[in-house]
Amino acid sequence: MPEFVTLDMECWQDDLSPVQLAAYEKAEKEHNDIRQKITDVIKDSSGQNIFNGNIFSAYQLTGRNTLDILNHTSHPAKNQIRMLMPKIFSFLAQCRSLSSTTAGITKTHRSVYARTYPTIVVLPDGSSFSIRYTEPREIIKLPLDLNTLSEEEKKVRLDKRKPKKKIRVYEEVDDSFSSQKYLKMLKKK
Length: 189
Hints:
Strand content: 5-15%
Shape: elongated
Strand order of the largest sheet: 2-1-3
Helix content: 40-55%
InterPro entries: Ribosomal_mL55 (IPR018615), Ribosomal_mL55_sf (IPR044884)
Order of helices and strands: HHHHHEEEHH
GO molecular function, one term: structural constituent of ribosome
Number of strands: 3
Number of helices: 7
GO biological process, one term: translation
């Protein structure tokens, strides 16, 4: 087992963006602070090994829960370990594994996208104004609110929406065709 636990973020610091690098440095600082506090607890407890051979088993969470770790510690150090436990577990919950694979399969997490298109919005009263819209549309016509209309206007609008009856036109076929007229043309040849 190594002398100290390293913070393995599974990424190269050179490939990180400035925001990711700042988060990495913050996590590394918290990690070093927790490691220093655990080392101080060991020194304060007369140099005894408070985890029975596995100093950082609580930190790595290798199959032990909090109660097992506290039961295996010496009595003077129990209170100090209890104070450190929430910080250790909250730190481990916040650590993310940043790598190129996590960035490759996600979508763009932005509420405002870089490309917008000029669009005209037409209000129900006929007035219009232009906006930038995320989809390439020329005109967006807003619907009319029927609740603002009077009863007569509402009835006229709803009648216009109803399907209209189709008018059937019957054609009368004129049967004045005479085949004898065309037979004369065929016989002359």
